[in-house]
Specification:
The complex is a heterodimer of chains A (about 290) and B (about 450).
Chain A: E1 9-10, H1 11-42, E2 44-45, E3 55-56, H2 60-66, H3 69-100, H4 107-119, H5 122-132, H6 139-146, H7 161-186, H8 190-198, H9 203-232, H10 236-241, H11 253-262, H12 267-293
Antiparallel strand pairs in A: 2-3
Chain B: E1 3-4, H1 7-35, E2 47-52, H2 56-72, E3 75-80, H3 86-95, E4 103-107, H4 111-116, H5 129-134, H6 139-144, E5 146-147, E6 150-151, E7 158-159, E8 162-167, H7 168-172, H8 174-184, H9 194-206, H10 225-235, E9 241-242, E10 247-248, H11 253-266, H12 278-287, E11 289-290, E12 293-294, E13 297-301, E14 315-318, E15 328-333, H13 340-350, H14 353-362, H15 370-373, H16 376-379, H17 383-393, H18 406-421, H19 430-450
Parallel strand pairs in B: 2-3, 2-4
Antiparallel strand pairs in B: 4-15, 5-6, 7-15, 8-13, 8-14, 9-10, 11-12
Helix pairs in contact in B: 2-14, 10-11, 11-19, 18-19
The chains are: A mainly alpha (about 290), B alpha+beta (about 450).
Chain lengths: ~290, ~450
């Protein structure tokens, strides 16, 4: 008969396990429990408006959502928003990071000023942008009037409203990209640049063959974080500037989940929307990681 | 270095730790249960928490609340919650076993949703309907707020009426009168019918003004398309959903005609009609400008009347042509509050003649009691008849959809109105655009009701 394998743990290892056990239990309560409860709710119908108990309905909520034109439109808006805002933030952030990498006077002041949008609370930034977008009194239309451009319905035109929100979001999140990429650039060994210059490489060649490859890991992380944020945490900017309107022209998944769950009180469907949002962002992140491997 | 080589010993220690944590949690839970048992709790203090919002009528009551305390010994704490979020907060309160709110200001369009949960106290148990009527509350207003024979609040806080604001100087302008007469064949006057409203709005638009300021926002409740369209549909013989007959009537002939009319009228409105909120509307009336042009008329709230002396241009108000939805705020009592009787005393006080009169005068609004309307001090105001006639006096108030899913139905309505306004044929073939949008709304409502 085989003797059972013995698990050998030192006293220090065991104490370490016991030390983190409370934290794991707290994490389980505040993270895993709500997550699994939410998933469970997404397979249920809970008609609290009719004072009826929760019943399991399988994939009915998901089927209903995917067949809903409104939901399809909201998903399209969210994907569109992500695909437009993240690349803009990325290129702007990279450009600013490269500029800051040069030796310029007062660089620290510029870094601080350029970081300000990130420091301001998103709600306050959104309110400021809402005023700037105002048709009659907003700063944007005022500036446009000097160059003879007619006032624009930034938040009242359903064809433009989503892009107006993109502008506000890019303004608030580009500093994050800039700082992340700037930190990445700072870590590139300077001897690589020196060697390249000695070999007669141009600025573009240096950027393409040294800077970009060296930044690959940081780029992936930055894109992942911003993609997740753009998909799952896009609430305050949109909610305050347009409320998801006019109609649902700028409605995105997080606000729609809130609306369905806490305005219509269809808790099951609201939970399903948040699970779908989570899955979509996981797919996008997986795609980014896959691209990285290639 | 000691080594613990036994799996059993390790697992025993981990289980011991888990048991300790479970015992601690159980102990805390038992303590909580014990302290929330009625027999162990002291008699409720004479302090009530009322969820509240803002406005001149609230300021008036806030200024008088110490009198209530002197009278009853009850202290009122006002918890300010943005109106947009009161429903979620109240739903959570009603699901909770330890309420932190005893009463709340609620709105007529949210009331069916809240009432369906069974979490609100019926005011008819405190004072039967006959007594409310003896106290001169308007019967039609009480009936609008009745759900399955129960009354959950009275509109003692706000009873907003939309009225027609018009520029007195423009309507008195001799040149404009001449041009209008030659184009339309009758004298320029403040419109009193839907046809003359269209003509006058079109005329002023042709003259370089904004014919009429409308709020057609389709992304928020309590203003915009939500308030404007349903009574318009009722005026033309249509509607959205008839709660009495359980019929969806949103794509009836009357409803389509109403939306067609609205699409035509919206051509003469300000360019920001789909995004203007309350602030933009107030500014438009005060400054008389929107979309870079002067306004000739505005379909706006009666409370703005008090702002007119400081407005840039000369305005007056006239009776609204169309009926309107009730715009009612009042205090409801949460059923799971242990201080329901104290909240009732507060409700009773806020709906008394003195307070009802004070809030009516503080913010020109429709009174909730006829004795207030007949009071000489109130009657002396020009706006009273305009408001009372606009708000159920000459045309009945349009009843709200009394269904638990009313919020969702109204939301779908706004979405489909938005589709209609943005339809390529919205102004070239408004009837077809309206029919399309309302047929889609019919399907939406069917899905909402069936589930």
């Amino acid at each position: 008969m085989k003797k059972p394998k013995k698990l050998i743990l030192t006293k220090e290892q065991l104490i370490g396990i016991l030390m983190v056990l409370p934290a794991i239990m707290v994490l389980s309560i505040v993270y895993f429990y709500p997550l699994f409860y939410n998933i469970d709710l997404s397979f249920s119908d809970w008609p609290i408006l009719e004072n009826l108990p929760k019943t399991y309905v399988g994939l009915e909520n998901y089927a209903s959502l995917f067949s809903s034109q409104v939901f399809q439109g909201v998903v399209f808006n969210t994907v569109k928003f992500t695909l437009v805002s993240v690349p803009i933030e990325f290129f702007l952030g990279l450009g600013l990071a490269l500029l800051l990498n040069r030796e310029i006077k007062g660089k620290n002041v510029f870094v601080t000023l350029l970081s300000l949008p990130m420091i301001i609370a998103p709600v306050i930034a959104a309110l400021a942008w809402r005023w700037m977008f105002n048709f009659d009194f907003g700063a944007l239309n005022y500036v446009l009037s000097f160059v003879g451009v007619k006032p624009v319905l930034w938040t009242g035109d359903p064809n433009i409203s989503l892009y107006s929100v993109v502008v506000a979001d890019v303004w608030t999140t580009t500093p994050f990209m800039m700082l992340l990429l700037y930190a990445g650039i700072q870590m590139i060994p300077t001897h690589l640049y020196e060697a390249a210059r000695v070999d007669g490489a141009s600025t573009i060649q240096i950027f393409w063959h040294i800077t970009l490859p060296s930044l690959k890991s940081v780029l992936i992380v930055a894109l992942m974080i911003r993609t997740i944020d753009a998909f799952t945490k896009l609430f305050d900017i949109v909610y305050i500037i347009t409320g998801g309107g006019p109609g649902y022209s700028s409605m995105v998944l997080p606000i729609y989940a809130y609306k369905v769950a806490l305005t219509f009180f269809d808790l099951g469907k609201g939970a399903a929307i948040s699970v779908i949002t989570l899955l979509f962002s996981a797919i996008m992140v997986a795609a980014i990681l896959l691209a990285r491997r290639k | 270095m000691k080594q613990l080589s036994s799996v059993k010993a390790v697992s025993r220690m981990i289980w011991a730790a888990i048991v300790v944590i479970i015992v601690v949690i159980a102990g805390v839970g038992a303590y909580w249960w014990y302290t929330t048992q009625p027999s162990t709790q002291p008699a409720p203090e004479k302090v009530i928490n009322i969820a509240w919002t803002e406005g001149p009528e609230f300021d008036f009551i806030n200024g008088k609340v110490n009198e209530f305390k002197t009278l009853t010994g009850i202290t009122v704490n006002f918890l300010k919650i943005p109106r947009a979020h009161i429903v979620e907060r109240l739903m959570l309160e009603m699901l909770s076993s330890t309420p932190s709110i005893d009463g709340s200001v609620i709105y007529v369009l949210e009331a069916p949703t809240l009432a369906s949960t069974g979490g609100l106290a019926d005011l008819y148990t405190y004072r039967p309907k006959s007594e409310w009527l003896t106290e001169t509350f308007y019967q039609d207003q009480l009936e609008i707020l009745e759900f399955n024979g129960s009354l959950y609040y009275v509109p003692s806080i706000w009873n907003g009426a939309l009225v027609n604001f018009y520029r007195t100087d423009l309507f008195a302008n001799a040149t404009l009168q001449q041009v209008f007469n030659s184009e339309f064949g009758y004298a320029l006057a403040v419109p009193t019918t839907p046809e003359t409203l269209l003509d006058v709005a079109k005329f002023f638009t042709e003259q370089g003004y904004i014919g009429i300021h409308l709020q057609m926002t389709t992304s928020e409740m309590g203003a915009g398309a939500y308030m404007f369209y349903p009574p318009l549909a009722a005026y033309f013989g249509g509607g959205i959903y008839n709660t009495t007959t359980s019929q969806i009537v949103c794509n009836s002939t009357g409803s389509v005609t109403a939306l067609e009319y609205l699409l035509n009228l919206s051509q003469y409105a300000q360019p920001t009609l789909f995004e203007d909120g309350t602030f933009e509307a107030e500014t438009a009336v005060m400054q008389g400008v929107s979309g870079g042009k002067q306004l000739a008329m505005a379909d706006q709230w009666s409370y703005m009347y008090n702002m007119l002396p400081e407005a840039t241009y000369s305005w007056n108000i006239s009776e609204r042509i169309f009926p309107q939805q009730p715009d009612m705020l009042g205090i409801a009592i949460l059923k799971n509050s242990p201080k329901k009787d104290y909240v009732w005393q507060f409700v009773n006080w806020t709906s008394s003649f003195e307070i009802a009169k004070g809030t009516t005068l503080a913010t020109p609004k429709a009174p909730c009691r006829s004795d207030v309307a007949n009071d000489p001090e109130v009657e002396a105001n020009y706006w009273l008849n305009v408001i009372v006639n606009s708000y159920g006096g000459h045309k009945p108030l349009t009843p709200v959809i009394k269904n638990p899913h009313s919020t969702e139905i109204y939301e779908s309505m706004m979405l489909r109105l938005n589709d209609a306004f943005n339809d390529p044929e919205a102004h070239t073939n408004p009837n077809a655009a309206a029919q399309r949008a309302l047929d889609n709304l019919y399907s939406d409502i069917q899905l909402i009701l069936v589930g």
